[in-house]
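Data card: per-record layout.
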Amino acid sequence: MQKTFAIIKPDAVASGYTGAILAEIEKAGFKIKAMRLTRLSKAQAEGFYAVHKERPFFGGLVAFMTEGPVVVLALERENAIQAWRDLMGATNPEKAAEGTIRKKFGANIERNATHGSDAPETAAFELGWFFSGSQLA
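The structure for this 137-residue chain is written out next.
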């Protein structure tokens, strides 16, 4: 079994899509190991997305991720990282496959409903950013 990290972003939470996205996650065979509704501070968002600090979209990303509540999740299943990325769909909802979360609930490339870890190292960092080890047992 593998764990991965996911966020239901502020756009999806504000639009009332949290329950539908959680249902999609469970339907796809994920176990929700930890989950919390939270609101990111500017410092938390900047730290979490530090890998993008030099990119031109960094300021907008931080502003977006702090504009409202998010749901952070620790998900588990076999091949969880790739399975979650497949379920989310392409970053740009316009290019996402039919039936994916971003195709169903994302508005555009910036407001695309969900985030997911892209590698085991990223998942370990991101899970640790939001959850303690005991929460992930």
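Known properties of this structure: The domain at 2-132 is CATH 3.30.70.141 (Alpha-Beta Plaits). Strands lie at 2-8, 31-38, 70-77, 114-116.

See the next section for split statistics.
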